[in-house]
C-alpha cells in the first residue's frame, strides 16, 4: 500500500509515518515545515519505503502512480501557532482539504481528515458527543482554526456524498508525546519546559478550566483502525480522563521533582472552559480505547524533553 500523509513532519504526522512504515506501507510525507520539522522525519529518511515532498498543500499536488490512502494532517494546531499563521491555517483547512480530497478522488484512495475537538468551541454540552454541533465564535481569534476544521468536515462529507469518496473524519482531543515542539505554546510543553528550566509554570486564568490528555500512540492506533473501517461520520479520539489545568501543573511539578512555582496569567480569549471526549462511538465502532494512562505518558514525554534540553 502507498500512503500519503500531509503534515508528515508534524508531531502527529511523524508518528503516523512511523506507524504506516512499520505496517509495511510506502509512505509519502508532505510538509512545508511552517510548524513541522525535518528532524521529526530523520528516523525514516534512510528507509527505502519513505519519500518526502516539500510542498504547501494549500496548492494542488500531482503524484505519479497509485495512492491507496490519503491522510490530511497538515495544519498549525496549537493556539499560539495558529494565531501566528492565521491565513495559512484557514487555507490549509480549506484549500488543503479540497486539494487532498481531489487527490483521493482521482486515485480512488481511502481518505482521512484530522479534525479537532475545537469544532465544539467552548462547549455547552459535557462531555462532548459527536452529535453535538458546538459553540464556536467564528470571528474570535481561534475562529481561524475552528472554522477551517468545520469547513473541512463539510467538504469531506460533500466528497463522500457527491463523489462516493471513502472518507473518514477524526476529532482529535488534546494529544501529547514525543516530538511535540517545546516551544509550540501548548500547555504541556510549556509546563514541562518551565519545570525543567526551574522557571514558574504559567497557569492561564485560575486554572479551573479542564482538558483531557491522550498519549500519541493511543491516538495513532485509533486513526489506523478508522482508516480501514466502513464508517464515514466523525469519530472523537481522545482520553476521557479529565483534569483541571491547575491540577495538571501540580502533576508535572511532582513528576519532574521541580521546585518551580506556579504563576497565574490572564486567560486567552475564547479559551474553552471544559473539554472531555465521549468515546462511546470509537469504543463501539473501532473497539478502541486509550491504553496509556497520564502518569506513564507524562513520564515518557518528560524523558523526551529532558533529552531535548540536554539533561
Ligand atoms: N494554558 C495554561 N498555561 C500555558 C499554556 C496553556 O494555563 O502556558 C492553558 C490554556 O489556557 C488552556 C489549556 O491550558 O486552558 C490548554 O491549552 P493548549 O494551548 O494546550 O490547548 P487548547 O486545549 O486550549 O487547544
Give the topology, please:
Elements: E1 2-6, H1 11-22, E2 26-31, E3 50-54, E4 69-72, H2 79-84, H3 86-92, H4 95-107, E5 110-116, H5 143-163, E6 167-172, E7 175-176, H6 187-196, E8 201-204, E9 210-212, E10 214-215, H7 216-227, E11 234-237, E12 242-244, H8 245-256, E13 262-265, H9 280-286, H10 294-308
Parallel strand pairs: 1-2, 1-4, 2-3, 4-5, 5-6, 6-11, 7-10, 8-13
Antiparallel strand pairs: 9-12
Helix pairs in contact: 1-7, 3-5, 4-5, 6-8
Bound molecules: uridine-5'-diphosphate.
Notes on the protein architecture:
The radius of gyration is 19 Å and the shape is globular. The strands form four sheets. Strands 3-2-1-4-5-6-11 form a seven-stranded parallel β-sheet, with helices on both faces. A two-stranded parallel ribbon has the order 7-10. A two-stranded parallel sheet has the order 8-13. The chain has two domains: 2-178 and 214-240 and 277-291, 3-Layer(aba) Sandwich (Rossmann fold), CATH 3.40.50; 187-208 and 242-275 and 301-308, Alpha-Beta Complex (UDP-galactose 4-epimerase, domain 1), CATH 3.90.25.10. It is of the alpha/beta class. The protein has helices at 11-22, 79-84, 86-92, 95-107, 143-163, 187-196, 216-227, 245-256, 280-286, 294-308; strands at residues 2-6, 26-31, 50-54, 69-72, 110-116, 167-172, 175-176, 201-204, 210-212, 214-215, 234-237, 242-244, 262-265. Bound molecules: uridine-5'-diphosphate. Uridine-5'-diphosphate binds next to α6 and β8.
